[in-house]
Write a structure and sequence with these properties.
about 425 residues, alpha/beta, 3 domains, about 55% helix, globular
């Protein structure tokens, strides 16, 4: 049985907001919803969207997470918050009061980040929920259409999701590519578009505008998944900063609250569980919390606010991670040798810390996603894609499957040019 009621949450939320405002935080209003663990897993599986369209992949995600929790493989998330205006945050009813207080302070940090970080300026937070609700209704209409049906709909969604990360990494409005090309005074009839006027990284957008004879329902689903990809890309690119900022502020705020003595140790225990280092991999909560504390220590709190507003994870780490941090965090790089054993190849000493730092930058956020752009369209309507090789080879098996999905949307052959073992390779 919970040791709190809704009046308790209202009381502590009011005190949290007062302290946050005194420190200069500026956030979207937050709507809190309570749920049980079963509902929380469901919300996670649907990416936190209360009005998300249905798809088998979300059900699969739910079953995996539910099974892992039941067998003790993973615990439950403390919270879930959606980048919307107002923000929607889910609180589990099973959480004790001290944890709800921590979570609400944490959510204030997240909401401030959503509102103020430049990467989120084009996510249209005030329309997120109605857009998703409308998308769900449209997809459901296609599922129920006897001439289309669930199999065709899910096949298109499968294909779109396989390409959903292939959108521009930099924030921009979701517009028609034809409009952009026309602005550049380019003739945009598909038959005349042998080559885009510049490297086109928005593959779904390109297919949407230049694939021939796409039925309107397919075009609509592509636009829905593309819009969703633009919404999620800033979150992918700022995971370390976003979680670090939320942890930085929940720690500050809770320490200024007049908490009952009995909550102090449980709060510190929960906080430390969140920001502890993970063996063999980076915990974004740990890294982000560490760096914001170091920025305040070295440059003052004002610099923390500047960093929160202008950076993404890559530029954030490049700007603020020092050799001292690498040594304190015990960062190192490892790889597989010829017999497939893991070996440490760099440590954070005087000679190696910059290499460790660069390797970290190459692995975080969207940098872990291969960069692919549209190179040209051949006369037989074959779409040529190009992989910007940075020394990391594609996993050919997965690349072949993704190309099959791309062919389904393009409705013609698709080829991908990359490098494999330092030699040109065409898929």
């Amino acid at each position: 049985m919970s040791d709190w009621n809704l009046r308790d949450l209202e009381k502590w939320d009011e005190e949290i907001c007062k302290i946050a405002k005194d420190h200069g935080l500026d956030w979207y209003p937050i709507t809190y919803e309570t749920c049980d663990y079963y509902e929380m897993i469901g919300n996670m599986s649907y990416h936190g969207m209360p009005t998300h369209y249905g798809h088998w992949s979300f059900g699969k995600s739910f079953e995996i997470q539910h099974s892992q929790y039941q067998h003790g493989v993973t615990g439950l998330p403390y919270e879930l918050i959606i980048n919307s205006d107002p923000c929607i945050s889910y609180l589990m009813r099973e959480n004790p009061l001290y944890l709800q207080i921590l979570i609400m302070a944490h959510c204030v940090g997240h909401s401030d980040f959503f509102k103020k970080n430049r990467m989120f300026g084009f996510t249209r937070a005030d329309t997120v929920v109605p857009r998703m609700r409308n998308a769900k209704k449209r997809i459901q209409k296609y599922v129920e259409d006897p001439w289309i049906g669930i199999e065709k709909v899910e096949k298109v969604i499968d294909a779109c999701q396989a390409l959903s990360y292939q959108v521009p990494r930099h924030p921009k409005d979701v517009v028609s590519l034809k409009e952009e090309y026309e602005a550049d005074k380019i003739v945009n009839k598909k038959a005349e578009l042998e080559k885009p006027p510049y490297k086109e990284y928005d593959i779904l957008g390109f297919v949407l505008d230049f694939a021939t004879d796409l039925p309107e329902w397919k075009r609509d689903i592509i636009s829905i998944v593309r819009d969703e990809a633009y919404y999620f890309m800033p979150q992918i690119r700022t995971k370390v900063m976003n979680e670090g900022w939320a942890c930085f502020w929940h720690y500050k705020i809770v320490h200024e609250l007049n908490l009952p003595q009995k909550y102090h140790i449980p709060f510190l225990k929960s906080h430390n569980q969140v920001v502890r280092p993970h063996v063999g991999r980076i915990n974004p909560y740990h890294l982000g919390f560490h760096l914001f504390n170091k920025i305040e220590e070295r440059h003052g709190l004002k610099e923390c606010f500047i960093a929160r507003e202008v950076h993404n994870d890559e530029s954030f780490i490049r700007q603020y991670l020092t050799q001292e941090d690498c040594e304190e965090l015990n960062l190192f790089s490892y790889s597989k040798n010829d017999i497939n054993d893991l070996v440490v190849d760099e440590v954070s000493d005087y000679d190696g810390w910059k290499t460790v730092k660069n390797n970290l930058i190459n692995q975080i956020g969207s940098n872990s996603i291969p960069v692919i752009y549209v190179e040209s369209i051949e006369k037989d309507n074959t779409l040529i894609l190009h992989h910007e090789h940075d020394g990391r080879d594609l996993q050919i098996q997965y690349a072949e499957h993704v190309l099959e999905h791309c062919k389904h949307l393009w409705q013609s052959d698709v080829r991908l040019i990359t490098m494999l073992d330092e030699a040109p390779y065409e898929i």
